[in-house]
Write a structure and sequence with these properties.
Protein name: Efflux RND transporter permease subunit
GO molecular function, one term: xenobiotic transmembrane transporter activity
GO cellular component, one term: plasma membrane
CATH architecture of the largest domain: Up-down Bundle
Helix content: 40-55%
InterPro entries: AcrB_DN_DC_subdom (IPR027463), Acrflvin-R (IPR001036)
Pfam families: ACR_tran (PF00873)
Number of helices: 30
């Protein structure tokens, strides 16, 4: 007794398991987290180092350079980059996927410990941050004081840094909360220069007095026989109200208090950053998910607790300034609609071709069983519902019905032979289940290499391949269990077609019969001109098609219209933050007037340690994220909106550059721009000259927009040239002089005023603003010496110099990047123009140009895909060999694969899509799909030959009988992919080339298979005869 017969006689166990799988699958579908795309960024560790008072040049030379050199020695490092500005160095090291973040963090920490003693004194402890997809915030909140509330943004910032942040961190689904906005409250002591001189004091004395008066000092341990107790001298006792009573110095005339020489103010520190929410000054709060967490899970936790948090802070107003939630939920909803459409269309096409409502109903019933079992498998594997996984589910529609129909048709055939429903189900399933399994395995075989391909390709496509494999295996299980069971009920009764079905059958036959006659006649003619059809026509058409690939163009991933725009900009060097904010206000006004505007978040500058808001921007640099209504509800494309905004922004005076680009303009966050020409070499002045020349040439590239450099030599600085002889004469060290200048003009943090339950206030000492505005104020600054105060211009001369706006390094060398963006032009089309324009650029010795944009990653990814395709073909071949017990028949079957490439290339060219990673995946998938039609033909021919029919008669019979199932299979698969090709969901532009390739390839391969597979069969048959004849003659 066969498995099928045993199961159908006692179906309870397996049926229960299947129903359980369906129920669990339904629950899994309801509970599965949502995302737009799978996490794919390389693991990265960022190190932020702060050296108070140091210039950008010193930070780059004495900190960033040394840290880079050490981090570059770590295992599995892809690249090390650094960005240095005044006082701050940000060094990032990117690792291969094989390096986990935990291991990477430990290695980076150990590397810093090894070199810490060699780094400058005064460097604050390094802050190490893990950077991954989870670093991108799931939501950005803008927090303002409500109208009439007795709060300013400094107080809001204080609340956000303390009580509000703690309340948000108590949400279990939230991993981290980062606050941004530049309003740091501080206690400022503004020292009067004249009074200071009158009392014969200097700023260093004032700072030292405050520091000494407000200090906790450990006093060691009191060790006893049974315990030990820490001894602490509690010196942190300053209070704001009594601060001015502090004694600075004692003279013969009495004590000098702070009130005698300074005024006390509670302000906020000089801002290096600002945040606007929806066009209003605010404090920004980023909500981050756990590294293994999910976007929608964290958002659900935030939505659950935020109303309670709002009640805790009634004086604050909360707005969402940036979130991907609407995009994700709309996109997934669109994908579910596309899946519904694919199922309806495919079932409709199958019904038209089969012209049997009972068989179509049975096939349709198999779909939910298969899908819910697939969803259960996805849940077990920890997958999300995203565009990639749901595309696989939609692609599977036609393939699932193919499995079901093969079994249904065979059961129906046995039913037509007069067998009872039970016996027809047993015999029909038993006869086909091994062949059906072989067909499933051929498709699975071509997908397996994607699971182990490595790199970015695997990160994106692994889930696609896995879900498709799950769906195919689930479909096979359903086709040999559920369908035979249900067929006994659905297919019983009169097997003849009703009137409507007969009408449909006549219509479909009216189309298919001329097609059969055409291909039979064409084969009869072609077999007499076999070499002509195989050589000049077949191979020639394939070569001609592949020659069109340069016209098609290549991308790593296609651009997409999600309704989200990023605007990166920089004002002129030395622009104050206040002036930059005025320019930002103009930009925001333009954005608000743009039709379809929803919300925006604006960030200018950066704050050390606040990674999710950006760690490397200067006060002249900013980023605006803008949300518009989705593309289904507006007339203009996102690229048209970008062009309009760019033109308006460029009219604003004071902007050095502005980039306006779509969300996802680069598939990886580590790719700075689609086109990134990086110039490396030792001398910044030479790099500046070369970058300007490269920038000028890139303006000639058609399709390239927003061309800029990531630094210039435009920053103005006043450089003090010290007179070392006078310094020696007055017994003043360069360090003492520099400390005095810095304290007077930038201020010096003397101590921290502790406040219970808060982070405390920095006590900053400096001159009032009116006494530190001009060059004259600098020159007349009194420098304390043992012989009395001396004006600074007695000890140094002054000159204005131009220096770098920011110092950039990569690969242990100074670099400058020239960046360019695009709308929808293929990367290869842009890169080809770039290469031609830069080919004759003369480079001095020691300087080199490299392409760091999308093209660099594209080469690596396509190399991996090429290997995957080769391995897929090898696996496919050897999966066919045991099925046909031949080494030549699989080659005949695989003839369909190059035929499909013809349709794939022309499909991309006609529709206007570029060849990209999803398109390559479509070609690999095609290899597994199109061979199934060849298998149907070759299997029939071999069976007919075994029954004693002649070769031509067997081939003509195969063409006539197999045309309907071949057309039906192809049309079902094509119809199922139409919603993907039509980009029926937000973000689906990324994967639509996969469907375009599959549809074009299937259309052409299906038709040409009916001619070329029989032709190659005759060719290999004749070849075998010749070989036997030669061996016989020997």
């Amino acid at each position: 007794m066969s498995f099928v017969e045993r199961y159908l006689k006692n179906p309870y166990l397996i049926t229960s398991l299947i129903i359980l799988g369906v129920v669990l699958g339904f629950l899994s579908f309801r509970e599965m987290p949502l995302n737009l795309f799978p996490d794919a960024n390389y693991p990265k560790i960022a190190v932020v180092l702060v050296w108070p008072g140091a210039s950008a040049e010193d930070v780059e030379d004495k900190v960033a350079r040394r840290v880079e050199k050490e981090l570059a020695t770590l295992d599995l490092v892809r690249k090390v980059q650094s960005s240095s500005r005044d006082e701050v160095a940000a060094v990032s090291v990117e690792f291969e996927y094989e390096k986990g973040l935990d291991s990477a963090e430990v290695d980076v920490s150990a590397a810093l410990n090894r070199i810490w003693a060699s780094l400058p004194k005064g460097l604050l402890p390094a802050r190490i941050f893990r950077v991954s997809d989870a670093t991108a915030p799931v939501c950005t909140l803008a927090v303002y004081p409500k109208p009439g509330a007795p709060l300013d943004l400094a107080k809001v910032r204080q609340l956000a840094d303390n009580e509000l942040r703690e309340a948000l961190l108590r949400i279990p689904e939230v991993a981290q909360v980062e606050v941004f906005g530049g309003y740091f409250p501080e206690v400022r002591l503004e020292v009067d220069r004249d009074k200071l001189a009158r009392y014969g004091l200097n700023l260093s004395q004032v700072i030292s007095a405050i520091y000494a008066e407000n200090l906790n000092i450990p006093g060691g341990l009191l060790i006893r026989s049974h315990d030990q107790i820490l001894i602490k001298v509690a010196g942190e006792r300053l209070e704001k109200q009594k601060l001015l009573d502090l004694v600075v110095a004692r003279t013969k005339n009495g004590e000098i208090h702070l009130r005698d020489i300074a005024r006390l103010k509670t302000l906020y520190a000089e801002r290096e950053s600002l945040f606007h929410g929806n066009g209003r000054p605010a404090i920004g709060i980023n909500i981050l998910r756990p590294e293994k967490g999910h976007v929608t899970v964290t958002l659900a936790g935030l939505h659950r607790e935020l109303p309670k948090i709002k009640k805790m802070f009634p004086e604050l107003s909360f707005e969402v300034a940036d979130t991907q939630e609407n995009l994700i939920r709309t996109s997934i909803s669109n994908m579910i609609d596309a899946l519904r459409d694919a199922v309806v269309l495919t079932v409709g096409v199958i019904f038209i071709i089969l012209a049997r409502w009972r068989m179509t109903l049975l096939a349709a019933i198999s779909i939910p069983f298969t899908y819910f079992m697939t969803f259960f498998g996805m849940r077990l594997l920890g997958f999300e519902l995203n565009i990639v996984t749901l595309t696989a589910v939609i692609v599977a529609v036609g393939l699932l019905l193919d499995d079901a129909i093969v079994v249904i048709e065979n059961i129906d055939r046995h039913h037509h032979l007069g067998k009872p429903p039970f016996q027809a189900a047993v015999d029909g399933t038993k006869e086909i289940w091994l062949a059906d399994f072989a067909g499933t395995i051929t498709t699975v075989a071509v997908l397996v290499p994607i699971l182990f391909i490595g790199g970015y390709v695997e990160k994106i496509l692994r889930q696609f391949a896995s879900v498709l494999i799950l769906a195919l295996l689930s479909s096979y299980v359903v086709s040999i269990t559920v369908i035979p069971l249900l067929s006994q009920k659905i297919l019983r009764g009169d097997a003849r077609r009703n009137a409507f079905e007969r009408l449909l059958y006549r219509v479909s036959e009216g189309i298919l019969e001329p097609l059969r006659n055409f291909f039979v006649a064409l084969f009869d003619f072609a077999v007499t001109k076999r070499l002509l059809f195989i050589g000049p026509l077949g191979i020639g058409l394939l070569v001609l098609s592949l020659k069109q690939m340069p016209l098609v163009g290549k991308d790593l991933m296609p651009p997409m219209d999600t309704g989200i725009i990023k605007i990166s900009f920089e004002t002129e060097a030395n622009t104050s933050l206040a002036q930059t904010e005025k320019i930002v206000n103009q930009m925001e006004e333009i954005i608000r007037e743009t039709p379809g505007f929803i919300r925006m978040a604006t960030m200018v500058g950066s704050e050390p340690g606040v990674i999710s808001f950006g760690a490397e921007r200067t006060p002249q640099q900013g980023l605006i994220t803008v949300h518009f209504i989705d593309r289904f509800h507006r007339k203009e494309t996102i690229w048209q909106i970008e062009e309009e905004l760019r033109e308006k922004f460029l009219r604003i005076p004071g902007l050095r550059y502005v980039h306006v680009y779509d969300f996802g303009a680069t598939p990886l966050s580590s790719i700075a721009a689609p086109v990134d020409v990086m110039i490396s070499g030792p001398d910044p002045k030479v790099l500046d000259r070369l970058a300007e020349e490269v920038k000028t040439r890139l303006y000639k590239v058609r399709g390239l927009v927003s061309i800029s450099r990531n630094w210039t030599l435009e920053k103005r600085e006043i450089e003090l040239v010290l007179n070392l002889e006078k310094l020696a004469r007055y017994k003043v060290s360069p360090l003492e002089l520099a400390s005095t200048v810095r304290a007077a003009f930038s201020g010096a943090a003397a101590s921290v005023l502790r406040v219970p339950g808060e982070d405390g206030y920095v006590i900053r000492v400096r001159f009032p603003e009116g006494e530190r505005r001009t060059l004259s104020d600098l020159k007349t600054l009194k420098i304390p010496t043992p012989e009395g105060p001396v004006p600074l211009n007695e000890l140094a001369t002054f000159q204005e110099v131009r220096t770098l706006t920011v110092y950039k390094r990569q690969g242990l060398s100074p670099v400058v990047d020239v960046l360019g963006y695009r709308y929808t032009t293929a990367i290869t089309h842009l890169q080809g123009q770039v290469n031609r324009l830069l080919a004759d650029l003369p480079l001095p010795p020691g300087y080199r140009i490299s392409q760091e944009g999308e093209s660099k990653h594209m080469g690596e990814s396509f190399s991996r895909l090429k290997k995957a395709l080769i391995l897929a073909l090898v696996l496919l071949y050897f999966s066919l060999v045991p099925t046909f017990k031949s080494f030549l028949d699989p080659l005949t079957i695989m003839v369909a694969i190059p035929l499909s490439l013809i349709g794939a290339v022309w499909g991309l060219l006609i529709v206007g899509r570029h060849f990209c990673m999803p398109a390559a995946m479509g070609m690999i998938l095609l290899a597994g799909i199109v061979v199934n039609n060849s298998i149907l033909l070759i299997d029939f021919i071999k069976r007919a030959r075994a029954e004693g029919k002649g070769r031509r008669e067997a081939i003509e019979g195969a063409i006539r009988i197999r045309t309907r199932p071949i057309i039906m299979t192809a049309m079902g698969t094509i119809t199922g992919m139409l919603p993907i090709a039509a980009e029926r969901a937000l973000g689906l532009e990324r994967l639509s080339p996969l469907a375009v390739v599959a549809i074009g390839g299937l259309l052409v391969a299906t038709l040409l298979t009916l001619l070329y597979v029989p032709l190659f069969y005759t060719l290999f048959e004749d070849l075998k005869k010749k070989i036997r004849r030669i061996r016989g003659n020997q």
